[in-house]
Amino acid sequence: MNGAESLVHTLLDAGVDTCFANPGTSEMHFVSALDRIPGMRCVLGLFEGVVTGAADGYYRIADRPAATLLHLGPGLANGLANLHNARKARSGIVNVVGEHATNHLALDAPLTSDIEGLARPMSHWVRTVRDANSIAQDGREAVAQAAGRPGQIATLALPADMAWSSVSGTPGQLGAIHEPAPAATEQAAVISAAQALRNSGDTTLLLLGGRAVRARATEWAGRISAATGCSVMSEFYAERIERGAGRVPIPRLPYAVQPAVDALSRFDHIVLVGAVEPVAFFGYPDKPGRLARPGTTFTTLSTHAQDPAEALQMLCEELGALRLQPQRCPMVVPTAAHEEGPLTPASIGALLATLIPENAIVVDEAISTGRAFDQTTRDAAPHDWLTNMGGSIGFGLPVAVGAAIAAPDRRVIALEGDGSAMYTLQSLWTMARESLNVTVVVFANGNYQILKGEYAQVGAGTPGRRASDMLSIDRPALNWTELAAGHGVPACRVSTLGQFADAMRRAQAAEGPSLIELLL
């Protein structure tokens, strides 16, 4: 057995059975091992940002890590933006990065680089294999790190000679590595939160983040609100919100500074459940960085290492609210009016609420068009909503790939701005090759519309010709039906609500991927 085979066996034994890959010369023995050893699903991405983003999406739905296979330092570097997003989303990923043969490194060949130095800012754990006989141990530790609570990014550099060298023995059959048990909820935190809620429930906010926005946790949060009159919100960005009809409505904190400040201004006390003190996404002239009003008191009920549902249940019990029924979202009733009128973000969101199928996964990178979708889609059929935790655009299409691989029986809907989609356009090819049930909706406004708003927010004045050219993508215009077709994905272009509704119904009735270009 060689080192590459040892690593594949180790990954499979530890419970990693999916590898998103973009390999090169240094990884060929690992590719050969993947080819000959049964059990690993290998998914090719035509750009490393697709590979790392797909691993993020996979973890968010599967709650267990996938592997990536990347080519040397430059390949890793191409994937760093979506590793940044995955790190912020607390997604567990095992990166296997090929390295030159150890005796070749001193020659400083063109692709030689500091892989550990590149990996470290976006990884929690980094190691280079130094001995072929340690590959199994290194690989198992990488999986253990990735499967931690919260999930972590583990990067293992595998020199080519370590991959092709013979190893002694066989990988230990130690069984799958599962997420460890969460840390215990502290009773003192429960008592402190309960005291704040009893004293001033109407001016106290439960701010949820991480796994606290899954249905098991929001049920308890809804009961607490019913008992105390407190408000419940989530952080604006959340890796996976379980929402929709029959579930407890959890509005998201607004993105823009002033609306967020206004939303938080009436709270004396904020209880953090898998969340952190809310801050502005950017620094602006004459605007606060901290969004809560000065003097607000914070209590941390649960961290990301703990179980937020357990913490909220304990708080519910402390408040005597276990038997109360929370408010729930009603089911939206489709009407002809949903398919009539002008195309606006509000009308598109209201229509989407009638079109999201039960148990769907919605990946939201709609940026400016989708900013209000949180409110307008809240009463859709029960579904999961995934957002960009790290803010680096180009996350949506790859995450949709990973989510669809993790849940092949569920429909995935990717809501995409046209500018954002161009960053990882190659995802469409992977969707076609893997026959993934992904419906991509591209909101085509021909602009980096979000940047036009930010230009004004930072007080940069009125954009002139050169600035305007850097904020628009309309010369030449992108043709998404042709771009999709070139990647093997059926596509259509629509310009009215009625056309959009018809296209969505056709897409969701068909197997495999499709793309709808919505002209704005």
Automatic annotation (TrEMBL):
The keyword Membrane does not apply. It holds the Pfam family TPP_enzyme_C. Residues 1-106 form the Thiamine pyrophosphate enzyme N-terminal TPP-binding domain. It comes from the Bacteria. PROSITE patterns: TPP_ENZYMES. Residues 377-517 form the Thiamine pyrophosphate enzyme TPP-binding domain. Keywords: Thiamine pyrophosphate. InterPro entries: THDP-binding, Thiamin_PyroP_enz_TPP-bd_dom, TPP-bd_CS, TPP_enz, TPP_enzyme_TPP-bd. Coiled coil: none annotated. Belongs to the TPP enzyme family. NCBIfam families: PRK07586.1. This is Acetolactate synthase large subunit. It comes from Variovorax dokdonensis. The lineage of its organism: Bacteria, Pseudomonadati, Pseudomonadota, Betaproteobacteria, Burkholderiales.
